[in-house]
Design brief:
alpha/beta, pyruvate-formate lyase- activating enzyme, 9-stranded mixed β-sheet, 3-stranded antiparallel β-sheet, 14 helices
Length: about 375
């Protein structure tokens, strides 16, 4: 059975960033060996299944180190078809992405890496709770390329405490100069349960700043040859993230690890966010599950495809796949949004209007409902 995407969650970090609401834990390095074994045990549920893409995310996957990552990959290969991947991506943070790790990553077949840069201003990094410096970030990028990893991506955050237009511009231009092939740009949001939510910094830029900077960043990257192919993602031609494209095109995937989500055969489920229970018995960890009906699945896929700014949504294609009668309600909603100039329409194809990109959640709510 061919499955497009495999995601493996690594929930370990050196410290918890002040804005982060992902499931990750700091100071638990002593549990990593047991965790690797648990992931392998969970993978046995999918014995014999083949995958097109692999994404190892977190957390901080580079905390595994070369030895434990090699053990994980070798063990997974005994159960899963990951020997013919068209793309293998791993996330890394600059403080743990040393040359030995990056060489090992490349030798294991990872040709794409996403580095958690966030900013190249040391004061902004400190205020966000990041433990690396700007110099470490640039060195990690340089070493990744020198080790033969040919698709290097970085994350950048708009709206960090103390950030200015000048500092953000400096971050972007240095990353472009370093030869990056892909840049993900996220506007900071204050999420419940984070340190920033408990004690918001006094010097957080406002929404107006974020909107202006998003437009500025988009312009800088486009002029540098990057394609704005998804709301938060820019890539040089041919360097788009295939694993994430599968998500946005409504494809199926399997997730391993606590809090990892899966979608297959009209079912969606997500493992419980409980590291200790997962290590004890990954097969027994509870999960939330939904059975997705045709109309819901179709609307969700439409919403995800609208995130693809260049590609957009082909409503005719959805109708042929899910049924013309079932698609009538969705097409009415899409036409209504086009009439409000929130979507652009050409025949049966729809794209987000430029003025709707930063307020796309409003559009997506209407598409779903």
């Amino acid at each position: 059975m061919q499955m497009p995407g495999l995601y493996i969650h690594i929930p370990f970090c050196i410290s918890k960033c002040l804005y982060c609401d992902f499931y990750s834990l700091a100071g638990k390095d002593d549990l990593i060996d047991g965790y690797v074994s648990a992931v392998v045990r969970e993978s046995e549920k999918y014995d014999g299944m083949s995958f097109r893409t692999l994404y190892v995310g977190g957390g901080t996957p580079s905390l595994l180190g070369a030895r434990r990552l090699a053990r994980l990959m070798e063990s997974l290969q005994s159960h899963l078809g990951i020997d013919r991947l068209v793309e293998a991506t791993i996330e890394a943070n600059p403080e743990s992405a040393d040359e030995d790790f990056l060489k090992a990553v490349r030798n294991m077949g990872f040709k794409r890496i996403s580095i958690g840069v966030q900013s190249l201003d040391d004061d902004e990094l400190k205020k966000a709770g990041r433990v690396h410096s700007s110099a470490q970030a640039l060195k990690a990028v340089d070493v990744a390329f020198s080790c033969g990893i040919d698709n290097v991506s970085a994350d950048v955050i708009i709206g960090l405490p103390g950030q200015t237009g000048e500092s953000l511009d400096n971050t972007l231009r240095k990353l472009i100069g370093a030869g990056l092939t892909h840049i993900s740009v996220y506007c900071l949001s204050i999420e419940e349960g984070t340190a920033f939510a408990a004690c918001p910094p006094d010097d957080l830029p406002g929404d107006e700043f974020q909107a202006l900077m998003y437009e500025s960043v988009s312009g800088i990257l486009k002029r540098s040859g990057f394609i704005h192919y998804e709301i938060s993602n820019f890539a040089l031609p041919g360097k788009e993230c295939l694993h994430n494209l599968n998500y946005w095109r409504g494809g199926e995937y399997i997730g391993l690890g606590p809090s990892a989500a899966s979608h297959m055969g009209g079912r969606r489920w997500k493992n419980a966010s409980d590291l200790m229970a997962y290590i004890d018995d990954p097969a027994a960890v509870g999960f939330d599950e939904d059975i997705v009906d045709v109309e819901t699945k179709m609307a969700e896929e439409a919403m995800l495809r609208l995130r693809l700014l260049e590609e957009g949504l082909d409503a005719g294609q959805l109708a042929r796949r899910y049924g013309f009668n079932e698609s009538k309600g969705l097409e009415e909603r899409l036409n209504n949004l086009a009439g409000q100039k929130m979507l652009m329409k050409k025949g049966k194809k729809y794209k987000l209007a430029p003025g709707s990109i930063l307020t796309s959640n409003r559009v997506f709510v209407d598409v779903i409902n």
